[in-house]
Amino acid sequence: MATTVVPPGSTTPPASPRRPVARARRDEATGRGVVGTLLLYAALLILSVIILAPLLWMLSTSFKTTGDATALPPAWIPPTPTMEGYTKLFADAQAPLLRWLGNSVLVGVLHTVLVLATASAAAYPLARMRFPGRRIVFALIIGTLFVPGFVFLMPNYLIVDGLGWLDTMWALVIPGAASAFGVFFLVQFFQSIPAELEEAALIDGANRWQIFVRVVLPLSRAPLATLGLLSFLGSWNDFLWPLYVLFNPEQLTLPAGLATLRGAYATDYPAVMAGAAIASIPVLILFAFVQRFVIAGVARSGLKG
Amino acid sequence: MTATTLPGRPADDVARRPAEPPRRSPGPPHRPRPWTPYVFLAPFLLIFGTFVLVPAVSGLWMSLHNWDFFLPDRPFVGLQNYIDLFTPDALVAQQFWESMRATGLFVVLSVPLLMAIPLGLALLLNQRFRGRTFFRAVFFAPYVLGVSVIGLLWQYLLNGNTGLINGYLAELGVTEAVPWLTATPWVWVSLVGVTVWWTMGFNSVVYLAGLQNVDDALYDAAKVDGANRWQQFVHVTIPQLRPVLLFVLTMTVLASANMFGQSYLLTAGNPSNETRTAIMFIAEVGLEQFRMGLAAAMSYLLALLLIVVSALNFLFLRQKES
Lengths: 305, 322
Prior knowledge:
heterodimer; A: MetI-like fold; B: mainly alpha; MetI-like fold; disordered N terminus
């Protein structure tokens, strides 16, 4: 990793006459001295180790024998590398990891699509039309922004049971799809779109649906991407609800499925870590490619809120 | 619901906009049909009504009954479920308040760290240096893994006998194994530490966006006035960051009050239910023992508390913005 960095365009900074020369050796672009840069990278390095070391340990353990997994002193390179942990899991019909991964992706995508479709369609008239009942609808949506999700846990369990959705992915896809936050977030954005654009389309004979699809939505790519990413992350990380509404190992999502490994494999750490690794690696690879967008999305959520 | 206490700003904005377009343009455009807005709203309202509005009311109704999932009779008991929760001798009251204590303790211990450490991290990442995007992604990465991976990983790392953490402590000469997951106060250190490790990247990214919105001219002005780094931080950064700070505070308090997965996976509520959080207890009573009326009553009590806290935060935030 880089230690000292000399950014481009930083030739010799003009020494301030009032300061001693040594202290004036600051970088014009960054306002930092060499010592400052060293300290900065030292801090970043330590933090990165704190974040990455546990993940590397997970990977390393997944290739160990059960004996080596708990041996002291800790060995970062497996002394006798083995795929046992992985083969054990793949042979276990109670732990269909790839199926769980697929379920999680499918649920996440369907949930996200549904959130985007319903929230944007609802936000459009709330932002741009006048009609009786608008204030009431908007007030109800804003009101539920403050109601924590667990309030709906018991009644929704009964409703989902009544609909015959227990132990199906619909229990995960649909109930959470009414995103009050999503509507609130998009209403704010839609209101910032200049009215002239809509008027021009109306003069051209477009109806409201056409304006929504051809004018409003294309202008809203950034907030829609933000909402989509937050919805996907929320669904992906959802733990409590799938734990209680799904039962069959074939139906589980990754979080609910992984939780069963803890009981089933207890201290068979190579197997448990193999499961964790299979769950993490595709996500981390995907994240490496889209991290800019994910981070931009999360950042924007704070500024709007 | 708290809707009435909120300023109706978004709605007013619309009302102040130019009149409806069709009236201004003389051309042949579509006449606005009165049902158009409702068609747009219908899909959302269908889901919203079924899984948000109906449950909000039916949950309250359940909480007034002795509602057991497996019993045919669900007699109306009025406020008995709530009274039970405030009867000091009742076992359920003791267990409920113990779980509320666990949640409260977790909020108090975790929120300051989840506010401060990510802010420090954001200040660090707000410097100009090579590899900034890389480090930002590294710090955010644990968040995308989800609580189940985090839970499995750390219950192994923190295992009292065979975990890596105690392994290294032993190397450093700590002869007695630290019971990270089985005894207080260590369980709290573990739960808070793991949560910080898991989510600090998320909060720092929100902070970072706020920091990048601070006008550089303000720092220049402060420098002209002779302010040092610390004074700039206190007098420029913090006031400019206020809305973002309050947003992060609200979100973090709610997230910590909703804590479930960490306790479920790391400590299973141990020792002797000391780390069993309110959400964990509600889920146990309602979805394992199926005493759903009682569980609904507990949810409403906890929700009321949180609604008050977050509404206060929200109003404060709005006031400061305007």
